[in-house]
Structure formats: structure tokens, C-alpha cells
Amino acid sequence: MESFTLEQLAKLIGGTPLGSYDLKITQLQDSKFCDSSSVCYAKDKKFIDSLSPKAGAVITTKDLTTQIQSTKNFIIVDDPYLAYAKASKVFSDRYNRENKKIKAIFGNNVQIGQNTVINPNCIIGNNVLIHDNVSIYSCTNIGDNSIIHSGTVIGSDGFGYAPIDNGWHKIEHLGGVSIGKNVEIGANTAIDRGALGNTVIKDGVKIDNKVHIAHNTIIGENTAIAGMSGTAGSVKIGKNCQIAGQVGIIGHIEIADNVIVMAKTLVTKSLKEAGVYSGVMPIQKH
Asked: 26 and 39: one domain?
């Protein structure tokens, strides 16, 4: 696997190396899963608290290095989030090259509609039905007996940008999408691939038309999501949940098992107990 030394990567993203300059770095990783050959970023204490004890190197500010005990290898920058965005571009070139080398794998009795595109490095299970005009990006796995309806896009980039002066720096998404068995996904739905790691749709999930599932969302077994609902990034929804139509769920929160969210509700905090939740203002005459 292609690698960069700590010094090389620091130069590519405009940082200053600190520690073992010749440390070989093979991948950019989430702070929770960073291993001895990976680099991650930490922009504040929340990231430091979640940092893997095996982290090879961390992109961070000089001040934060004193709070990190798991490694002595750093790339020092003023803006860790922007530096992470730059690093994602460095690793995305290899990501795209490697994906093109790996053929898609198809199980038995797969049916594929007209004008559907399935990119390299995908795995499609047995008895999967994919209707017309579906786009499936690399690093997507679809389990047995699943159905994907027309116009759906699986594995496109998540909505990730680091702010810069007068604009935005795109964050390349280096993960994939994992879809379980007996899943059905409606028409014109978008499921983004993970930024680092996968977006996960577990067995038995049912997703309606025109739903948006953002990067790194995890949806538990047998949960159903109705039309025009959407999640922001890194949401975790439990199993056997029902998400009604036009529900919005903000990023980085968790919903427990066996939760029902009523139509048009905006979920702004974690729902830690099973139950029925709503957050809709009643219609009023003025």
C-alpha cells in the first residue's frame, strides 16, 4: 500500500512535522479508529477524548499536543479541520486509483435495470433487484434480497467542506456504504458514503422515496424511514424505529431502539428511550 512519511504528508498539507519524521502513514482515519500506521485530526478536546490509544500521528494545533498522550507524532497546523480537508485530497487520489483496479462482484440472480451504473469495487449479493437509472459508487456493498428503486444514488460524496477565506475547501470522502440483507430503498433517494469509515444500513431497513441519508449515518435493523426525511452526518438510529415523513435529524446524535418519530419533527438532541416523539407546532389561524 502506498504510504507517506510524516514529513512528506506535513509538507503536502502545509503543516510542520513533530516527532518521527520517517513514520510511514498509510491512511487517514477517524480519531476513534486510528492505528499505528494512520493519521487522524483533533481540533478540540472532544476529539482528544475519543482518540485511539494506538494512533500513529495526529494533525492538530501546537497547544493541543500537550493534551495528547497516545502519540508523540504530530503535524502542527493552525486549522486542523482545514488540514484534514487537505489530507483527504492527498489520500483520495490513491482511493480512486485503487477502486478502479477491483472489479465489482455480483451474486446469483441479480437483476439490473436499464441505464444503471455500478462502479468497480462493489459487492452485490444474491437475488438483488436494482431498477433503472440507479447510480452505485465504488465501495458499496448490498446484501442479499435487497431492492433499490429507480433514480437512487448510493455512495456519492457527503456534504463536507472546510471554510476558507471567500469560500470552501472540499473534504474528499474516503469511506463507503454497507447495506444489509432484505433492505428496500425507494426511488430518488440519496445515501452518501462515509467520510472516514462507512455509512451503514442494517438488515431489514425500509427507506421510502426522496430520503437523504448523510455520511456515516448508521441505521439499525428493521427501521423504517418515510419519504422526504433526512439525516445529517454521523447520526445513529436504533433498530425497529419508525421515522415518519419530512423528519429532520441533526448530526452526531443517537436515537434509541423502538422509537417512533412523528411527521415533520425536527430532532435536535439524542432520544435515549423508546417511545413516541413529536415536535410540530399546531396549525393556527391568524
From this structure: yes
Q: Name the 3-class secondary structure at 58.
A: strand
Residue 34 lies in a domain: yes
Rounded Cα distance between 74 and 68, Å, is 10
Give the other-Cβ count within 10 Å of 46's Cβ.
11
Q: Are residues 116 and 250 in the same domain?
A: yes
* pTM, entire model: 0.94
Please indicate whether residue 149 is annotated as part of the active site: no
- The residue annotated as part of the active site, out of 131, 169, 173, 215, is 215
Looking at the structure, do residues 116 and 182 belong to the same domain, yes or no? yes
Spacing of C-alpha 11 from chain mean position: 27
Helix (H, G, I), strand (E, B) or coil at 93: helix
pLDDT digits (tens, 9 = 90+) for 62-80: 999 999 998 999 999 999 9
**Please, where are the H alpha helices in the chain?**
6-13, 45-49, 80-100
- Domain extent, residue 210, equals 104-277
Q: What is the CATH number of the domain that holds 90?
A: 3.40.1390.10
pLDDT (tens digit per residue) in 170-196: 999 999 999 999 999 999 999 999 999
Burial track 231-253 (b if 16+ CB lie within 10 A, e otherwise): bbbbbbbbbebbbbbbbbbeeeb
Q: In the listed set 82, 99, 116, which residue is the last one of a domain according to the structure?
A: 99
Question: Which pairing describes strands 147-148 and 129-130: parallel, antiparallel, or unpaired?
Answer: parallel
